[in-house]
Design brief:
heterodimer, A: 208 residues, alpha+beta, four-stranded mixed beta sheet, 9 helices, 4 strands, 9% strand, B: 103 residues, mainly alpha, 74% helix, globular
């Protein structure tokens, strides 16, 4: 078994909204480990992600630190670099589609509103991470990737970003105050700007 | 990636079923364990209640495949979709009974 810390704690940008991401790689059954506290992968699955050049493999390659090793080896480090990331365009399009499905749900019903706003945040973040990994000099895997792209950042104000991020934290970690109707309305009014941003970056890929 | 999207759609479907009964002050936000715990705690729901158990079962089924290899997913996915749909039907039936009892 190997255990790694990854994400914000390794990048050094940990804040009050961050949790500590931990990865366990094992082939065995972990009886006393709560799967909601760790990302648990088999060795074969990790090798598969490396071969695919999957963004999560790149994330681990660039931003993880070994915490525990049963055999004194550093399994991830020994894998070397993942394959080149070749799915930038299709992944960006897929996260755009996930964003659109959340928007459709928001227009249709209030029953899953928090989940839909959380999904908007997830789509925005992963879209930006995939875009930066495929097309920019430096990949950004942080929660703030969508506003860390300089001139290519999503054109929403801080208030909207914070509302979407709060929805994400409520849905993943179950902490924080529920959002007010005003906050929700403000975020919903910005969905068209987020859509335009995603479309414009996809168009840039097409031109390349 | 399609499994990833399917998982989001299935979570959304479960959340809509649970919240459509309007039984509690704070709706269910998502199917993560921590979010379910919050929903149970803030609404003072009996953690042993059958509908809570079913929501947890749905959550475990949906997150089960997240880290599996493609080979495992192909086989397991066929069974999973059916299991999850069955649990959704049970959640709906159980919450409908609860609603009748409250009403």
């Amino acid at each position: 078994m190997h255990i790694y810390a990854f994400g914000s704690v390794c990048r050094g940008d940990i804040d009050m909204g961050s949790d500590v991401d931990m990865l366990i790689i094992t082939n065995g059954h972990l009886e006393h480990i709560n799967p909601s506290d760790y990302s648990i992968y088999s060795y074969d699955r990790i090798k598969e992600l490396w071969e695919q050049g999957n963004p999560f493999a790149w994330h681990l390659h660039l931003e993880s630190k070994l915490v525990f090793s049963q055999d004194s080896l550093n399994f991830l480090s020994d894998l070397g670099s993942p394959s080149a990331y070749a799915d930038g365009e299709s992944d960006c399009v897929k996260f755009y589609e996930i964003f659109k499905s959340a928007c459709d749900s928001i227009n249709e019903t209030e029953l899953s509103r928090m989940f839909d706003l959380s999904t908007v945040f997830l789509a925005m973040r992963n879209f930006a991470s995939c875009y930066s990994l495929a097309y920019l000099e430096r990949p950004d895997f942080s929660r703030r990737s969508s506003i860390n792209l300089g001139a290519l950042s999503v054109p929403i104000n801080k208030e909207v970003f914070d509302v979407l991020e709060s929805a994400r934290i409520l849905c993943t970690r179950g902490v924080g105050s529920s959002l007010t109707e005003l906050q929700v309305d403000t975020a919903i009014k910005s969905l068209s700007q987020i859509e335009c941003w995603m479309k414009s970056l996809i168009r840039r890929i097409d031109k390349v | 990636m399609s499994e990833f999207r399917n998982r989001i759609e299935s979570q959304r479907e479960a959340i809509k079923i649970v919240n459509s009964f309007h039984l509690y002050g704070e709706p269910l936000f998502s199917l993560t364990e921590k979010s379910i715990n919050r929903w149970v705690s803030i609404n003072q729901i009996d953690p042993e209640a059958e509908h809570v158990n079913l929501v947890i079962q749905a959550s475990k089924k949906l997150f089960f495949l997240a880290n599996k290899s493609q080979e495992q997913i192909t086989e397991d996915y066929k069974k999973l979709s059916k299991d999850v749909e069955d649990i959704f039907v049970k959640i709906s039936q159980e919450m409908s009974l609860l609603q009748q009892n409250i009403g």
